[in-house]
Amino acid sequence: MPILPCRRSLLVSATVLLFSPSVLASECADYLNVTVKKLHSEQEINLCELTKGKPVLIVNTASNCGFTPQFKQLEAVHQAYKDKGLVVIGFPSDDFFQEEDKEEETAKVCYINYGVSFTMVAPSSVRGSDANSVFSYLADKSASPKWNFYKYLVSADGQTVIQFNSRVNPDSPELTQAINSVL
Predict the structure, then answer these.
(1) Are 5 and 105 spatial neighbours (Cβ–Cβ below 8 Å)?
(2) Can you tell me the distance from the alpha carbon of 157 to that of 29, in angstroms, rounded to the nearest whole number?
């Protein structure tokens, strides 16, 4: 049966409403409904668009930490799971006094030294009253990071947060099992 003009109009209106930004925004966890600046770039990233309907591995990073080599393992996790739906996001922070003073230098460590291709955002605070909104949420659901390279695995709906301390390697059996459980 052909769609009549008034029904076609109604169908088009319903389709536009279904895919409008406000409806799409409701598909992601509220804590990710923010726009942040990409590391050493003018480009902004809407974390909701990046993550909607997907589990997320969030890591507070630092360029001059004993755990900085974990960037290689984080990149391997990103490569292994990106097509399965996992989103990896790095949040550089100088909260533990081990981040570069210049964002350009932070970017060199991530992109050149370690070949990071997962999303890295501009440096921000990840603990205390100055923590960015993402880490404020993670602190409420779990705890604030005690050091660099704390990892937070968050379910697609944002309700389940599993925290891993700095000593848990990104490719550890413990984290791998947790990732597989949220996919």
Answers:
(1) no
(2) 6
Residue 26: the pLDDT is 52
Q: Which two tokens stand for residue 111?
A: 């992109």
User: Are 109 and 68 a contacting pair, CB within 8 Å?
Assistant: yes
How far is residue 159's CA from residue 161's CA, in Å, rounded to a whole number?
Answer: 7
**Cα 75 to Cα 80: distance, rounded to the nearest angstrom:** 9
| Residue 28 falls in the annotated catalytic set | no
* Token pair of 109 as six digits: 């460590």
The answer, yes or no, to whether residue 155 has pLDDT greater than 60, is yes
Task: Give the active site residue among 6, 28, 48, 65.
Answer: 65
Structural domains in the chain, sorted by start = 28-182 (3.40.30.10)
CA distances in angstroms from 151 to 14, 17, 57, 60, 101, listed in the order given: 40, 36, 7, 7, 23
**35: buried, middle or exposed (CB in 10 Å: 19+, 13-18, 0-12)?**
exposed
CA separation for the pair 47, 31 (Å, rounded): 9
- Residue at 118: amino acid letter: F
* Average pLDDT over every residue of 87-98: 98
How large is the C-alpha radius of gyration of the chain? 19
